Amino acid sequence: MSIPFTHLTKLYIDGAWVAADGASEAVLNPASEAVIGHAPVGDSVSADAAIAAARQAFDNGPWPRLSMAERADYMRRMHGALVVRREQIAALIIAEVGCSQGVTYAMQVDMPLAHVLTAIDQSLHNDARQIPVDATVNPFNPAGPMILGSGSIEREPIGVVAGITGYNFPFLLNLAKVFPALLAGNTLVLKPSPFTPYSALLFGLIAEEIGLPKGVLNIVTGGAEVGSLLSSDPRVDMVSFTGSEAVGVSIMSQAAATLKRVHLELGGKSALIVRPDADIQATALGAIAGLTVNAGQGCALLTRFVVHNSVREQFVQIAKAVASQMKIGNPADPSVVMGPLIRESQRGKVEHFVASGRDAGATLVCGGGRPAGLAKGFFSDITLFDDVRNDMSIAQEEIFGPVGVTIGFDTDEEAIAIANDSRYGLNGGIATADAATAYQMARRIRAGSVYLNGGGGKMPYAPIGGYKRSGIGREFGPDWLREFTEEKSIIYPIGR
Question: Annotated active-site positions, please?
Fold first, then answer.
């Protein structure tokens, strides 16, 4: 059966489909290892053409000069065209990412589509501000009449944006570049992961359908060669990247020479603090369920379980029992809870960390290998460690797989210190019956978000981003578009 959007064999540049000099690469279904299509592979020539098209469209095209309401109308039509293709997009993600159907529909497709609709609504609120009127002495004629002055503070698009995205939530990540960048009046060059090219190329079809002016959205696939050019080229004004810490460091370094704006949403090693008064059964269930989300390939997942020593054994045993009941397999089966990792290279990385945890003296509670009966596909067991010290590599490094580590604590102060003892600061969680204490603790956790007892659902107005090496800037939330704009003061005399 043909997978939706895998017929796209060209790049989308300057409003047209352009061949990638005959280069193509097989895209695999990570659950079956079958080839789902041969995607175009861009290079520095195609990236250069995309940058030139975006530059021309920004400097001389109509897009930046449209009103916010006019741009919002385009983006609302883009949203509608994506909603109509909901089933096709989900089918693509299941095959391209290997994500289970429940997670795909809820988190990969429906939630991001709802969030960008909120962003469109928010964009229509004019946030230009008036500078207070002020009477001042004329510095060139101090004895003469005073000057009455005022002005306005405006926001303008930053220019050409390069959006570079990872493989784990590709449709969501591409949406999170396309919608705010374009709503704010920028033009965009979008580069997806080589593992998930079709989740980006499909936006070319949508751009054509809604009549987006040429050059406003350009989509170029490829590897490090393309990414390096986008990060270093002086014609690019901003790079917005979602992916690993190591690549984020590289992008920031490459961008430094041209002093371009850098927006980074990077990795995490987020802690779930389980206080002694928590509902241990529900918390352990939620902890393991979190590990299964996209096979643990999520930067904001809670993978460090910081559990009070009085309930740690109970938590671990319940978590072990829950893990044994989770169905792992091909997400083409709707009853599957967890699919595979994206590629063999990622499974090798996970298995390396599992071995390092054993070698460091942590206790392997469950998992640690590959599920039985799955000869094809890049599957990994749900793995849980106990007796973990926070200085172990499995407690400090982002594994990006279904691996959880359990660390004991005796006091709230100790729990906060463990949670903050990380170079990352993306997310966090606290499970407790004492909401007031949890709130006070959350204020002290150095992370971009903290969920108390699982949080409150989708929260489309909540910004997402990290402290420390988890990134720079925020996505979603009321100030999302500000990340893609410049602030300008316009000063003028009044009263004459």
Answer: 265, 299
Map out the domains of the chain as residue ranges. 11-266+473-490, 270-465
- Identify the three-state secondary structure at position 294: helix
Within 158-220, strands assigned E span: 160-164, 187-191, 217-219
Element housing 484 (H / E): none
Which of the four pLDDT bands, split at 50, 70 and 90, describes residue 459?
confident
Give the model's confidence band at 496: pLDDT under 50 very low, under 70 low, under 90 confident, else very high: low
Which CATH number is associated with domain 270-465? 3.40.309.10
Give the pLDDT band of residue 358 (cuts 50, 70, 90).
very high
Task: State the burial class of residue 289 (Cβ atoms within 10 Å of its Cβ: 0-12, 13-18, 19+).
Answer: middle
Q: Where are the beta strands (DSSP E) in 115-246?
A: 129-136, 147-157, 160-164, 187-191, 217-219, 238-242
Q: Tell me: the pLDDT tens digits for 59-85?
A: 999 999 999 999 999 999 999 999 999
Number of helices followed by number of strands (H, E) in the chain: 15, 22
Q: What is the CATH number of domain 11-266+473-490?
A: 3.40.605.10
Give the span between the Cα atoms of 350 and 372, in whole angstroms: 17
How would you label 140-167 residue by residue, b for 16+ Cβ within 10 Å and e otherwise? eeeeeeebebebeeebebbbbbbbbbbb
Dihedrals phi, psi of 303, to nearest 5 degrees: -120, -10
Q: How confident is the model at residue 21 (pLDDT cuts 50, 70, 90)?
A: confident
Do residues 101 and 336 touch, judged by C-beta distance below 8 A? yes
Question: Which among 224, 221, 271, 281 is positioned nearest to 423, based on CA atoms?
Answer: 271
